[in-house]
Write a structure and sequence with these properties.
The complex is a heterodimer of chains A (about 450) and B (about 450). Chain A has 13 helices and 17 strands. In chain A, helix 3 links the parallel strand 6 and strand 7. The radius of gyration of chain A is 25 Å and the shape is globular. With about 450 residues, chain B is of the alpha/beta class. In chain B, the strands form three sheets. In chain B, strands 1, 2, 3, 4, 5, 16, 17 and 18 form an eight-stranded mixed β-sheet that branches. Chain B has an eight-stranded mixed β-sheet with strand order 6-7-8-9-12-13-14-15. In chain B, helix 4 crosses helix 5 and helix 9 packs antiparallel against helix 10. Classes of the chains: A alpha/beta (about 450), B alpha/beta (about 450). At the A-B interface, helix 3, helix 10 and helix 11 of A face helix 6, helix 7, helix 9 and helix 12 of B.
């Protein structure tokens, strides 16, 4: 792979910024109140030029351009010319990737990640706890993340329903929600549920308890379906005495699981538990979308691949608990080579800020190609969330969620310089303050340094 | 530093045993522990005298004996020549704070010996007494080119105990614990406060920062008092009725620090905590190294004037909500710009292997590359008083040498050879074993 010599890198950055500074007096970037609004309305196009494109679906394109029209990618490639009147951004020496996507996050949920008062809480809607103004979203955006799935925690066997969002920091809550994204629900298994409830002397306190609780909940849902079916049938026949069953939010949600209306995202570590979860899904007739964390998934990779279940995992986390002891950083590539769609996810307000570095680890451990590593933080998580037809690659017609990096992103050194979502600039590292375009606040003014007066110099031995 | 030299002398003796433990590689069966090794053709990052393209490093009897350009560096006739063409060769990396050997599986309490929280003042806790040399975490760390580390207790106490400096290979804990009790952390972040329950009115002292400071001050005063008593009793030894002072391990443990013989590692993040800790240290004439300074951007010039080295990070700590997103990433660069000597630390156990990438990330946010390399090698060696033994490719130093297929700080780079004490360490760990078992 590219062997980046940092001085060379720094030179590139300097050249690039010089190029950018010289290209035109203050290039008009799409900020609020700027021509970008017009671009968004489809009047004026936006073109990012001279960049190395890492498209995720069409490999690497040198000296490439991306044309954005009305918030979508209108064209891209090496031989694309700027439409007349377009806003031009010269990204010479820089890289452009699709916006990164995190299929497993709990950011912007404060302490409201787990409703751990019962092991079955599918009626919890994470959107009700979503703190859209949390700076965690800003920091993820500055790391190049443009979409994320915010999941319920893993204290419960069946948790709540996820928020699918774009990191449009500075806008209102509903403007951050990913429009018309499929809904996902969180399941869990293993150590967390059994520990949380077991330490209160409640069911479940073992893995057999875990699955018994889950199976019972699904059986209750089947029974609830039957009650409604009977009621509907009676009503059809004109039975005036037919008694409408009582609506139960919890069972309503489980029925949606049974009917395949919710993507099931399962927190699962140990090899045997993937098998049990897949067997239970088969037994009850629902589909699993992805296993999350999945540190032992590589041990049963063939079976996971055969069931078309994705895996959202870390590049190299291990050893933090017993069920994480058999982790190996080669797992992502082993799974991929056996046909599993693998996403590298953060599950962390820290690592969501540098998913690119985490994905690059798969190139080192197992030899993922550049395209494969890119897909693990773009197209594959998009598939896990169910939005791969709209985001996750540089393709015509997709949302113009794009990141301009000042260096090679699949390395220790790539830093996002500009982040566009739906064709609009949301983060620009070169701006003062927070570097945000839709947020008026500025970092708190710094207090005057102590010890600057006549205080005696500190003594050091 | 008082005794590292003596320790290293005994260290050289045990090399013999270390060598026999690592010399069992069948492919080199005919070679012995005394066979010199010449790493030839690689790009040498010497740290102390620049980069040498197409260089040679000669290792003999556990030491580096020659470093220079291939054209002018003599290779002993009986040497095993390791072709490092296209490779990068650099000194073993040093983690300036880890918990290696103190934990195995974080959530399994029986595997943890991280910190004694029954009291806040525990200077008589020696991590060397808990260090688990056979930990599975150590092979996983050294295969990434980290050859040395500070092992520190976790930071829940203001004085949690004493650090050791380890080598990441050796026949047993005795040899791996290169310098026991090398330094003492003094943590002042507020996280060391004990719980106060206002409803019941119950709490365990200290529940406030003023409590922490008062308790520390009292501990140092008690130790000075104890020292005086011991000295008085020594002076009057043999006089009638004079009893020797009963040994007090806790107070005794503080004396080398009060005497300025060993450094205290002052850990604070906020400017206010930093100043309190520095004032306290100065009051008792402690020699100190600063640690973290995560949120001290407003006082970087003050830090520079202290002329103390800084272990900086973790640079992945979150900035505060009122700080820019890169406020902590760029801290190493800002400190170096002001002439501060910095070192990096993982502050971790399982992920010590990722230490070089943190340095790489700091480079992305403004730290000059050479300074990043120094912060992982010679700066750390200097801070810990071991610069004559470690931290660069220089003749005479202990042969902790790494050969990798690229830039040590880049996440894609694969480490190909690791030498510790001049012995090549098998690049093998539990995770590779699992990989091979399941990737057929």
């Amino acid at each position: 792979m590219l062997n980046r010599v940092p001085t060379f890198l720094i030179a590139i950055v300097l050249l690039a910024s010089a190029a950018l500074a010289q290209s035109s007096p203050a290039p008009a970037l799409p900020r609020p109140g700027s021509p970008a609004r017009a671009a968004r309305a489809g009047v004026v196009d936006l073109v990012i030029q001279n960049a190395t494109l890492l498209t995720a679906t069409h490999g690497r394109i040198a000296n490439g351009s991306v044309v954005v029209r009305a918030g979508k990618i209108a064209a891209f490639g090496a031989n694309v010319s700027a439409p007349a009147g377009a806003i031009v951004i010269d990204a010479g020496g820089k890289y452009v990737t699709p916006g990164l996507i995190d299929a497993h996050s709990h950011m912007a949920l404060d302490d409201d990640v787990n409703e751990a008062t019962s092991p079955i809480v599918p009626q919890m809607m994470m959107v009700d706890a979503f703190q859209f103004a949390s700076k965690e979203i800003y920091r993820a955006l500055a790391g190049g993340v443009t979409s994320a799935m915010l999941l319920h925690g893993s204290a419960d066997m069946i948790g709540g329903q996820a928020v699918i969002m774009k990191t449009k920091y500075g806008l209102g809550r509903d403007q951050l929600l990913f429009p018309n994204a499929p809904r996902s629900i969180k399941f869990a298994s293993g150590e967390n549920p059994k520990r949380v409830f077991g330490q209160r002397q409640q069911l479940p306190s073992t893995r057999m308890g875990n699955f018994a609780v889950q199976r019972q909940a699904l059986l209750d849902a089947q029974d609830y379906v039957r009650q409604w079916d009977e009621y509907e049938a009676k009503k059809q026949k004109g039975d005036k005495d037919a008694k409408m069953p009582k609506r139960d939010l919890k069972l309503d949600a489980l029925v949606e699981v049974l009917k395949g209306k919710l993507y099931v995202q399962i927190h699962c570590y140990r090899a045997d538990e993937f098998l049990t979860e897949m067997a239970m899904a088969k037994e009850f007739g629902y589909k699993l979308r992805a296993f999350h964390h999945a540190l032992e998934a590589y041990k049963v990779a063939d079976k996971i691949a055969a069931n078309n279940v994705g895996v959202a995992t870390w590049a190299d986390w291990w050893g933090f608990k017993q069920e994480a002891w058999d982790a190996t950083p080669w797992a992502a590539v082993i799974l991929m080579r056996k046909g599993v769609r693998v996403a590298i996810k953060s599950d962390s307000e820290d690592q969501i800020r540098r998913l690119n570095v985490e994905a690059a680890k798969t190139m080192r451990y197992g030899g993922a190609t550049e395209d494969e590593a890119m897909k693990m933080i773009t197209l594959n998580p998009a598939w896990i969330i169910g939005v791969d037809d709209r985001v996750g690659s540089i393709d015509v017609g997709k949302d113009a969620d794009l990141v301009i990096w000042n260096g090679y992103p699949l390395s220790s050194y790539g830093v996002p310089e500009k982040v566009f979502i739906d064709g609009e600039l949301f983060f620009d590292r070169t701006l003062a303050g927070y570097g945000l375009t839709h947020f008026a606040g500025t970092p708190e003014s710094l207090p005057s340094p102590p010890g600057s007066g006549d205080e005696p110099e500190a003594e050091v031995r | 530093m008082k005794n590292p030299l003596r320790i290293f002398a005994s260290f050289a003796v045990v090399l013999f045993f270390a060598a026999s433990a690592f010399a069992q590689q069948p492919s080199r069966a005919q070679e012995t522990r005394t066979t010199p090794v010449a790493i030839k053709g690689g790009k040498l990052l010497t740290i102390t005298h620049g980069t040498i393209e197409n260089g040679v490093v000669v290792i003999e009897n556990g030491k580096i004996t020659a470093v220079g350009p291939a054209a002018s560096t003599q290779i002993p006739a009986n040497a095993r020549v390791l072709d490092a063409t296209g490779m990068t060769v650099y000194p073993g990396l040093i983690d300036s704070e880890s918990h290696l050997g103190l934990t195995e599986i974080s959530a399994v309490q029986s595997t943890n010996d991280l910190v004694e929280t029954s009291d806040e003042i525990m200077p008589h806790m020696h991590v060397a007494d808990a260090f688990h040399a056979e930990s599975d975490l150590i092979p996983t760390t050294r295969v990434n080119g980290i050859t040395n580390a500070i092992v520190a207790p976790a930071s829940q106490d203001t004085l949690p105990g004493q650090d050791s400096f380890i080598q990441l290979a050796g026949p047993s804990a005795d040899e791996m614990l290169v310098v026991r009790d090398i330094a003492m952390p003094l943590n002042f972040s507020g996280a060391q406060r004990r719980k106060m329950d206002w409803q019941s009115g119950r709490g365990t002292y200290p529940t406030t920062r003023m409590g922490m400071a008062a308790q520390l001050r009292q501990a140092f005063l008690d130790a000075l008092d104890y020292q005086q008593k011991v000295a008085d009793s020594e002076k009057r030894k043999g006089e009638k009725g004079v009893q020797p002072v009963k040994r007090d391990l806790k107070l005794e443990a503080l004396l080398p620090y009060l005497d300025g013989k060993k450094p205290v590692v002052l850990a604070a993040s906020e400017p206010s905590d930093l100043e309190t800790a520095v004032k306290l240290a100065n009051e008792f004439h402690l020699k100190f190294i600063l640690n973290h300074v995560t949120h001290s951007r407003p006082v970087l010039d003050y830090i520079a004037r202290l002329k103390a080295p800084v272990i900086v990070g973790p640079i992945y700590d979150f900035p505060k909500d009122n700080e820019r997103y890169d406020a902590v990433y760029s801290l190493p660069g800002e400190l170096v710009k002001r002439g501060v000597k910095i070192a990096f630390a993982s502050y971790d156990s399982h992920q010590v292997r990722n230490l070089p990438y943190a340095a790489g990330y700091a480079v992305a946010y403004g730290l000059p590359y050479d300074e990043a390399m120094k912060a992982l090698t010679i700066n750390a060696a200097e801070i810990w008083g071991l610069a004559d033994k470690l931290g660069s490719l220089d003749a005479g130093k202990i042969a902790n040498v790494v050969v990798a297929n690229g830039d040590p700080l880049d996440v894609k780079t694969d480490v190909k050879h690791v030498f510790i004490n001049g012995q090549e360490i098998p690049l093998w760990d539990r995770q590779m074993e699992l990989r091979d078992q399941y990737s057929k």
